[in-house]
Amino acid sequence: MCQKTTIHNVSAAEKKVETKRARADQWIGVQLLGLALTLFLVITLGCSDGAQAAAKGAAVGAATATASTASAGSTLSRSPSSSSGSAVPAMPPDVQRVLDKGKLTVAVLGQDNAPFFMDEAGQMSGLDIQLARTLADQLGVSLEITRTAQTFDQVVDMVYGQKADLAISKISRTLKRAQRVRFSRPYLRMRQGLLVNRLQMAEQTQGRSMVATIRDLQGQVGVIKGSSYVGFLKQKFPQASIVEYPTWEDIVEAVVQGDILAAYRDELEIKKVVRTRPDVALQLQTIALTDTQDSLAVVLPWSSSHLLAFVDQYLDTLTAQYTVDAVLDEYADYWVTQRLQQP
Amino acid sequence: MVTSPKAYLPRQPSIEWLRSPWAVLISGGLGVYIGTTQPQVAAWIAPFGTVYLGLLKMCVLPILLSAITNSLGRLMQSHDARQYVQRIAVVFPVSLLTVSAIAVAVAALAGPGRDLTTETLQTLGVLVNQSGVDLEMALSGPIPEAATGGVGTLVGSMVPDNIFAALSEGQTLKVLLFAIIFGVSLGLVKAPSTAALFDTLDSLYQAFNKVIHGLTYLLPLGLCSLLAHQLSQVGVEVLLSMVDFVVVAIATFALIYLLSTIIIWRRSGLGLWPTLLALKDPTILSLATSSSLACLPAAITSLSEHLRFNAQTTNLVTPLAITLCRFGSVIYFALATLFVVQLYQRDLGMVGLGIVILGSILAGMATSGVTGILTLTMLGLVLDPLKLPLEAVLVLFIAIDPLMDPLRTLGIVHTGMAATALVAERE
Asked: What pLDDT, on a 0 to 100 scale, did the predictor assign at position B419?
């Protein structure tokens, strides 16, 4: 019932998708028909060896011919404007759109997240901003940063809705997000990490090694509400009880106070805590899980396949491969200033 | 025609001044100056200290083996062994308990690690971060073998399945057990032929004692270079952040040193000044070498020759007290545990304090088989039952260890001598 009403309200874009899907179905039908024909010919003419090859060739030829007509029809109908002949070779539409605007619109999360993107007296800086700036330079356009999104998923939504050309905003590659948008190759490969309260941990070990205790982790583990780590926690530590907090700062405070046993997030955020707050480093143990991953990548709309190739190629040419510790060291001075600002 | 070598020399060149307290004091002061202000010079003269320490350690195993076997064998033959065993069985546990309780009481009263300022915590935290204590582990695959030292390994490390391997690897505990068994069985053999072996062991012991005596002339040089090197390794910033712990530790060691000195003085029956003079060599050697074994010959000589305790008993009991009781480590672990307890703001009841006293004795004794950083990891033996974490604080203790190690060694050697003085009779 509900579905029917939505079909009535389909937008023009969705209609297009609908017709395309129908056409694709037709095309598969034609192919199947060709295949069945070939099989039939092979079986019936199988007894005469010489005729077999010739017949097969003919059948395949027929099938490809039908398929190519179908695909030619679809290209013609999809982009009539680009094929309307002019002498100048056309640019890929996704790149052309950026060049026409004269600026590369990059979506970044509204809240600062050092060392990836931080607003220092109106001036944006950080690893992600640096990356965005170079991409815009390489395209020969100016950079526009939009920071309306308040959650990481909202950043992805902005790219999906084509409100931005791409997003570089400490976005993790997850399969769920990959259903709607495309990811570049990772520009920072991280692992998942745990921030453990040493005192709480010492209560739990009971003569076992730290590794053995972590593997069947029991107790309260804090994660950011609605983040991908809720799912990871259920999968990796089924015996731990999940405590969801609205912000990361709340979780860190709870671990420091010993209200919960551990916090679960990427290793960079984990290591950042002890760097920015060395006074609690004695209470906390950082753990990087070597057989997990949390890779950061550039997010692009699913249609921007050429811009994706451009970004990938740029990331390939980056001489320095970033690691978590290298990034933390590069922004070492920043942590010191952060530390001084604390009461 | 035999002429004395003296005839060829214009006058008797005396090097006795090298053994005077003044020479030791001056070289010690020089060592402290170089170590604190001239780290490059300290590194440059460090090899001399290493050679000196090597020469001292060279004499340890022969002396350990000959002294214990010889004295235990003779003791068994003279039939008054039972009396000494009884005394040892009383003196060692009681003195260990006393020492541990004193350390716990001092640390509980002075409260190092209590109410640290945020700045201090930050400095300590930066140090912990720098040493990279974050753990990297996999969630699947085999669990890596953890190198754990404990009571089990202590017992396991005592029985030598191959005495020559134990000797060549310098595993003191195994050599000690072998010497005890060998000495007892040698004493039980009632054949006159054993006399020859006893004489051989005696001459072996005398020979290496001569080497040790000769080495005391080099003490000022060795002291200067060893002190300078040791002090240049101390991180000043950490030292300042842990200043309350360091001060409490120094005060506790000084208190126990004073008590031990009084015990030795009363037991020896000599005047205070001669007693102090006799104790000079082992004290300075422990501070300079940070190796209790290297001080063992000097401690025996001081007790049996200068203080006139029964040589046979001293030869037997001093090695046992120094290698097994480890008073210095016991004191240090009691202090360190209370520092950790107060740092993590844990409230121990009387039961908890009891665990610290007993746990420190166990952990201290467990250090007898190990060297280096492993010594400090034995702290885990006390912290585990109290459910306190070790890794982060271990970093801090490692950082100040160049300063603490000599004091710990002094505690081991000097209090070990006091325990021996309680067991042994005067000549």
From this structure: 95
